Amino acid sequence: MNPIKLFYHVGQYWLMLRQVFRRPEKRNVFWSRFFDEVNSIGVGSLGIVAIISIFMGAVITIQSAFGFSSPWIPLYAVGYAARDSIILEFSPTIVSLILAGKVGSSIASEIGNMRVTEQIDAIDVMGINSASFLILPKILASVFIFPFLICISMFLGILGGFVLGVAAGVVTPTQYVYGIQYDFRPYYVTYAVIKTLFFGFIIPSISAYQGYYTKGGSLEVGQSSTRAVVYSIIVLLLFNFILTQLLLA
Amino acid sequence: MIEVKNLRKAFGEKVILQDFSFRFEVGKSNLIIGESGTGKSILIKCMVGLINPEEGQVLYDGQDFLKMNFDGRNAIRKQIGMLFQGAALFDSMTVKENVMFPLSMFTNMPYDEKLDRVNFCLQRVNLENVLNLNPAELSGGMKKRVAIARAIALKPKYLFCDEPNSGLDPKTSILIDELIEEITQEYNMTTVVITHDMNSVLEMGDNIAFLYKGNKAWQGTKSEILQTTNKDLSEFVYATKFLKQFRDRLEKG
After folding, report:
1. N or C terminus: which one in chain A shows less Cβ crowding within 10 Å?
2. Number of structural domains in chain A
């Protein structure tokens, strides 16, 4: 993308956000849409988050156990390493990347399809702020529900590491439990939640932007959906770096 | 009444509308006719603010819509009902929810009252037993009728119809035309219809503007259009074999 186009899109993105964060037309309609989105984004993603977290937790545990083959390293370090990897990076970042694929593409294609079938024009002509009506509940629902999903992912990741690690015979239950309690810093959870709040904003807003300004037909809706995932991931990784620098360095 | 004055719209070098002026009368079906690609849809989109023209005025009962801010425009738009070419029903909602949507957004009616209004609007467009169907389960004509029901739910002052009978069979087209005509008179609305269907023109053309290459090339009524001496309009009106034969027979007496 050339720099001029990049500035154009950044400017248009901010203009869209200005429209999005206007007062909703009707509060009860807004809350109803908000809870629908919480259900769709949050509850709808619970299955994939759970499966990925359990197996990734298990793999992290087994890999750590094989990596720590030296007799000088105590086996409880496996639980310790698994806990920190899951809390610091796997749950907030990797799960958010997966959600960028699932939630981002769904938002972009839903809004893009509404754009090309003139449904957004119909909302505008009725005198409703379409950006606020369609996008605000999605952004706020994501910001609200992502931290819960990530906390669930942390719990299931650590649990998956325990159950499957013990079942695979790479660690004993006592060592693992001791490891996940050893030198625990609650701030790491705070750091993960703060990151997730940002990701919960980045993913739906960038995806909605791609969908909202779709021009053309179904082919372009597909392209918008792909762009939504790609740009969300890039911005998410950039913010992951910036926030890690700010919060941990 | 809606009055458009000296409207100009271009996309880059390509001029779509050039100095277009027209007065859309209250209680009448005001038709914009013309070939495909002459700027009819652009005109209607400029009039409702979906596209911003470079120059000109769009006056809703004397108020310049184009000079209004976001909130001012939305206040006017709340009095507008619009039927889109593809109906533009919300896919994620049932027929009932589609028609109820403007009522939920702009009124504080209790649910039962809203449901009564939805039923009334659907009966008005001759639709029954469709409340819980999704738009995907409806035929093209039914979608258009649901869209009309949604458009009239709030009893608008202005009704815009973008090619209301495109993609419909002749019989359903006539039904839609008659419906628009009846509703216009019933609610004393200012109705703006874009069409290139000559049946519609002859059915409801109380006040017609012929758009040709972005300019208003002719203005008149349905009774005047068949006797036109305007060459471009004549080519448009008598483009079908049926009407050509009709003209030839008339000329032969």
Report:
1. C
2. 1
Q: How far apart are CA B197 and CA B213, in angstroms?
A: 18
Range of the domain at A209: 48-248
Over its length of 253 residues, how does chain B's per-residue pLDDT go in tens digits?
Answer: 899 999 999 998 899 999 899 999 999 999 999 888 888 999 999 999 999 999 999 999 999 999 999 888 888 998 999 999 889 999 999 999 999 999 999 999 999 999 999 999 999 888 888 999 999 999 988 999 999 999 999 999 999 999 888 888 888 888 888 889 989 998 899 999 998 888 888 888 889 999 988 888 899 988 888 888 888 888 888 877 777 777 777 777 6
Is A120 contained in some domain?
yes
- Predicted-complex ipTM score: 0.89
Per the CB < 8 Å rule, is A127 touching B76? yes
Looking at chain A, which residue has its C-alpha nearest residue B80? A126
Say whether residue B160 is in contact with chain A using an 8 A CB cutoff.
yes
Q: Which of A29, A118, A125 is nearest residue B77 as measured by Cβ atoms?
A: A125
Q: How many angstroms separate the CA atoms of B250 and B253, rounded?
A: 5
User: A33 vs A39, A137, A161, CA distance in Å?
Assistant: 10, 6, 37
Cα separation of B7 and B55, whole Å? 6
Residue A212 distance to chain B (closest CA, Å)? 14
Q: Confirm or reject contact between B100 and chain A (CB < 8 A).
A: no
Residue-wise pLDDT for A91-122, tens only, equals 999 999 999 999 999 999 999 999 999 999 99
Answer left, alpha or beta for residue A183, where phi above 0 means left and psi between -120 and 50 means alpha. Answer: left
Which has the closest alpha carbon to A37: A128, A108, A112, A136? A136
- Give B49 to chain A, closest Cα distance, Å: 8
Considering only alpha carbons, which residue of chain B is nearest residue A129? Answer: B74
Structural domain contains residue A87: yes
Inside any domain, residue A230: yes
Structurally, at CATH architecture level, domain B1-79+190-253 sits in 3-Layer(aba) Sandwich (3.40)
Q: What's the predicted TM-score (pTM) here?
A: 0.90
